[in-house]
Write a structure and sequence with these properties.
The chain is mainly α. The protein is globular and about 60 Å long. The longest helix is centred in the last third of the chain and has 35 residues, at 369-403. Strands 1-2 form a two-stranded antiparallel ribbon. The chain has helices spanning 11-34, 38-59, 61-84, 102-128, 138-165, 168-171, 175-180, 186-207, 212-228, 234-253, 263-287, 294-318, 327-330, 340-347, 350-359, 369-403, 407-426, 435-452; strands at residues 89-90, 95-96. The protein has two domains: 1-133 and 283-397, no CATH class; 142-249. A hairpin with a 4-residue loop joins strand 1 (89-90) and strand 2 (95-96).
Amino acid sequence: MRLVFGKKLILQEIAWICFSLILCFFAFAGTMVIGGGYFLWGVVAFLSFLTLGLFLFFRSQLFFWLVLPFSFPHFFSVVSSVYLETGAYIAEQEAWSYATGGAVRLVSYLWALFFSAYLVFFFLKSAFGCGNIKEPTSWRLKFSNGVFILVILLLLFLYLGLFLYGSPVFQGVQRFEYWAEHPMPLLHSVLQYGFQLSFLIGVIQVFCSEKRRFSVLCVLLFVFVNILYGEKFTGIFLVMVYFFCGIYIAKISRGEGGFHLTASRFSAMVAIASGMFSLVYFHYTYIHAVDGGAFRFIFDRAFSLQGHTWWGIDALVSSGYPSQGIGPIFAGREDEVKGIYSLMEVIAPKSIYDSYVARGVSFTMGFPAILIFSVGYSWAFVLCVFFGAILGVVFFVLVGLVRGFNVVGIFLAVKVVLILSHALNMGGLYLLFDTRFAFYFLLMLIFFFVSRRGVRFG
């Protein structure tokens, strides 16, 4: 085993980490010992989380892109939790929030999750290396060409589904209602494969620059088909995020440098954000037909929705609500009163709970709320460290597969990342104890070790 800590882990990096940890510690101590001033301590905790993100972007951009599908949604859940400390109306709970100190506790658990992932990833990378960079051979080019053939077939299937069954956008219905009554639910599953393929397309365009334009076209077609199938944010965001994650993880792994903000890129980011906001505004104005104006509704959704599950559960548990045991962690949607639905049942009115269950929809950002609801605060912290360690291992394997340009292995690894992101964002932890996750995880490891041994496969 080769254990070499590179020169990059120097006092400046340690100072970044220590500064963030000190901020988080003072915020936690302030709410637990001093009490009161919860909003102020929540702001301090938010600055701690933001400092972690800045540290990763400027000092370890590879890990920044690896963790982005996890950290970006939680960033908004932290913002929402701080906002809820001020007192805001939560429509899903039909209640007004109040200051509890929950924002600080949320940041503490997220620190445990992401920092343990960073330490494990850094240790494995330093101890074992991520494998040699392999340029595309004729064998690997065949696999990459096969990816584009698969992409074309899936896109044709999705657009054919729109032609046969129509689009919820033009029918004026919400996507949940559309899929609940759809005669071919297979289309929904196929649509979600666009996230994996977008990542893979991003990696391929770095290794095979001649396919760059066609890669961008494929991703744009995935974005457009998500729009036509009624996605107003999440599906579109995930396609683009996984595409850019694939690009920059591949570029940094090959030593080509990371993301640098330029005037043209900033303009493109503003244009994309404006386009997505316009799409969201269109949906809430003409399809959802919300009362009180779309702008106000969007504001409430952005600042109240993302953190309301954590706020509701944390407020219950911190006031003495007993832990429910590990049952909710292992239960899936087949049992409506377990898993994430057991959280919804105790914080939402019955009418709202029933409407969500009937549509097969859960509240957003159920992690780490499901942990404190199940096993209490102390064990939840331990489990966050455990899940962070799993993340670190998966990130290490993914980087190794990308460096080896192992197309099949990358596809499997991104599937594992997607399952983890749903579990560690939405709270569906039962997915991590499912035989399918174990199957994907083992296959990913097999391809990783085969790739490191130099066997020509994928």
